[in-house]
Amino acid sequence: MARAFGAALAWLGLAGAATAQTATLPASIGRGEAVLRAAGGCTCHTNYPGEGDDAPELAGGRGLETPFGTFYSTNITPHRKTGIGTWSDADFLRAMTEGRAPDRSHYFPVFPYPAFSNMTRRDLLDLKAYLFSLTPVERENLPPDALPPFRLRAAVAGWKLLNFRPGSFEADAAQSPAWNRGAYLVNGPAHCGECHTPRTLSGGLDRSRWLAGSAEGPEGELAANITPDRRTGIGEWSATDLAWYLETGIKPDGDDTQGLMAEVIEHGYAHVDAADRRAIAEYLLSLPPIEHEMKAPDAGK
Predict the structure, then answer these.
(1) 20 to 30 Å CA-CA from 124: which of 101, 173, 184, 253?
(2) Taking Cα atoms as reference points, which of 257, 273, 274, 253 lies closest to residue 265?
(3) pLDDT confidence of residue 26
């Protein structure tokens, strides 16, 4: 009973702020790995398409194509020169919830800090503890391959004025604990909306079509409509179908998923607690269905 009560307090963020000392405890590291898996394994920070030394885990260098140019993921190993090894707790929290580097410069919004701003302090500091437990990798970060003003960090301040409102997850008392857990995961660590929601001309998320799919997902891939629309979304899927898909990558028709989604399942969702996969399914299938039919980016070529 004491363990269950402690776990409930931790999830609700009521267990108190983590300190620099507790962040190094094995329990914090273990919880942090679970947060990483719930975030899809942070696969954007590993250059999986490379081979051998070209793909050190979480050391960045992966090119993420956007309509504004190609932005390369950063090294989030605890290397003190090229990674995050000198970051304080405050530095990490600021990066994850405000999109600012330790020197206060802006991070490009290809880094999904709008979603991460919904995460609890406890989860964020546990994630930091896990990342700091990894082997440091020396790998320099790469500048974006984009034209001005999109390559300029100072220009992100304008983007934030238009599109960024820091979040703070609040449970809905009218819903079940599982629904609330699913809502937290989808809108926080899993950052599903960052890929599965269409964007406006300014690069912000189109909230009127939340999770209705995007033809301009990362690396030019199509991100599916994951609202329960029966024709263009996942409305024909059961909760069991969806939970099984998040564990295995196998769709109800027996087809398997490919590309980025296959990676986040393999390195992320397949390793989370089964109850969390069911919670995600419960939440997604409860959302308003949005009919939004997309064509692959290369359709018609």
Answers:
(1) 173
(2) 257
(3) 84
